[in-house]
Design goal:
One of its GO terms (cellular component) is small-subunit processome. The chain has 254 residues and is an all-alpha fold. It folds into 2 domains: 108 residues; 124 residues. 78% of the residues lie in helices and 0% in strands. Helix 3 runs parallel beside helix 5, helix 5 packs parallel to helix 7 and helix 10 packs antiparallel against helix 11. The longest helix is centred in the N-terminal third of the chain and has 21 residues.
Length: 254
């Protein structure tokens, strides 16, 4: 196992070079890597020679997916990788490899129906994980998914999930949600942001008043400032009109 693991570690470097021999043999290389995963990548594996072999294989598959542009994995292989990644994002010993693999898949804009469900679980993990670095990795992966994939009406659903998590009971989870929303606001194309601005403004405005943690209220204020700073004047005026309606409400003024 140790010799095979060393060979695979060397292969991860060789694959980054666009060599004629690699192009000629990439299909058989890919098939052999997936055969190793099929044989040894079992749930719960966390130590020993088998574990080192599996981790090395996942790393070289990540290189294969991300860097070998002359080769595209099959739909069945992609489904297999997503299944492994879905399991491993909940395994502390294999999370880093799983997130790297997901980033590689997203960078190639590969699509299968299972992708959406895996990304939903990544979004949940970005809020619920007890580990800050895991929440950060999950945010990065999910943000890449939002930016690189044509989601259409599903975008509103994904934003709605994050808006709903502003009420999450634990402060680190709410802070992670606010980090994600701030990133969305500062990176989304302006037409898309403009379309979603009313939802963002109203939900964030409510948390500015209702969140019990001063740190979260400060983050909400910074996020609202970023939102208003990016929007065109006419959209800002419409949002200010909403504020005026709130202030004129009898329940607010009495």
């Amino acid at each position: 196992f140790q010799l095979v693991t060393l060979c695979i570690q060397c292969l991860s470097w060789v694959l980054k070079m666009d060599l004629p021999s690699i192009r000629a043999n990439i299909d058989s290389i890919s098939s052999s890597l997936f055969a190793l995963l099929h044989k040894y990548a079992v749930a719960g594996l966390s130590k020993g020679d088998n574990f080192s072999l599996v981790v090395a294989t996942f790393k070289v598959v990540t290189v294969l997916v991300r860097d070998v542009k002359s080769h595209t994995i099959s739909e069945d292989q992609l489904k297999t990788l997503l299944l492994y990644a879905e399991q491993d994002i909940h395994d502390h010993s294999r999370q880093a490899t799983a997130f790297s693999l997901l980033k590689a898949i997203l960078s190639r804009k590969l699509v299968v129906p299972e992708m959406g469900e895996v990304m939903n679980k990544v979004a949940v993990l970005s809020v619920t994980s007890e580990l800050g670095h895991v929440r950060m990795q999950a945010r990065q992966v999910f943000h890449q998914f939002l930016m690189d994939y044509p989601l259409g009406k599903k975008l509103t659903k994904h934003l709605g999930f994050h808006m709903s998590q502003l009420n999450y009971e634990l402060k680190p989870g709410r802070e992670s949600v606010l980090e994600m929303i701030h990133t969305i606001i500062t990176t989304f194309p302006l037409p898309v942001l403009d379309e979603q601005s009313e939802l963002l403004f109203m939900m964030l405005g409510a948390r500015l008043v209702n969140d019990e943690a001063p740190e979260c209220r400060k983050m909400v204020a910074q996020t609202l400032k970023a939102l208003l700073g990016r929007l065109p004047n006419n959209t800002r005026d419409q949002l200010f009109d909403i504020v005026m309606l709130w202030l004129q409400d009898s329940k607010v003024t009495t």
